[in-house]
Amino acid sequence: MSSHHIVKEKQEPALYIDELGDFNEELLGQLLEWSPTLLVNGENYDKIVSLGLKVDVLVNGSNQEVQEDTRIVQGPVDALMVAINFLYEQRYPAVNVITRKFDLEKFAGFEDKINIVVFTERAKHYPIKSGFSVWKPAGSQFLIHGNRYLEVTNLMQNEEEVFEVVNDGFVEFSFSGQPIFISEPI
Predict the structure, then answer these.
(1) CB atoms < 10 A from the CB of 161, how many?
(2) Rounded CA gap, 2 and 149, in Å?
(3) Which of 40, 69, 165, 179 would disulfide-bridge 127, Cβ 3.0–4.6 Å?
(4) For residue 33, how far is the Cα from the chain centroid?
């Protein structure tokens, strides 16, 4: 008995590669597993094509030759902003972003528009709303971005913004206001 997976368009998060750097190839393969819409920063296009990947959207690309059926999207701001705004306008519900450095300033403001997870070489970063809870084994770590008052359960602060899970089980974050970004090592 074989199984065939049919993925409806926009059902899986799109994948935007801003900067690939030394990103883990196995994790990249997992993010590409369900054939998401693949957007690539023009500066990384040749490297991505050399990996044998089909690029759906080239963002802020120069006069380079592109694969057949690749859409080119240009914008007046940096490629990251152009890509996320394009996905929002195309009604994509979610996007995974690969970049070398997580810059909270760049991603703040998008958390209410599109479900976003940002992957760097060592961590994944994502926004949470108050009441967010997740099961984690003891010793797992979270980095909480921003200086805001929040209450946490089953977490102990061990450095300025680093929290460690005390016991195997659920951790919960409670705070007021807008969503906040947290990070976990990968």
Answers:
(1) 13
(2) 51
(3) 179
(4) 15
Nearest 5°: phi and psi at 110?
-95, -15
Alpha-carbon distance of 156 to 136, in angstroms, equals 13
Identify the sign of the CA torsion 107, 108, 114, 119. positive
Average pLDDT, whole number, for the chain? 89
State yes or no: pLDDT of 20 exceeds 50.
Answer: yes
DSSP state of 14: E
Q: What share of the chain is helix, strand, coil (3-state, %, to 5)?
A: 15, 30, 50
Backbone torsion region of residue 105, taken as left when φ is above 0, otherwise alpha when ψ lies between -120 and 50, otherwise beta: alpha
pLDDT in tens, 151-165: 999 999 886 678 999
Q: Is the pLDDT of residue 8 over 70?
A: no
Question: Residues 98-103: contacts with CB within 8 Å, 24+ apart?
Answer: 98/15, 98/16, 98/17, 98/18, 98/19, 98/20, 98/23, 98/28, 98/31, 99/18, 99/19, 100/18, 100/19, 100/21, 102/183
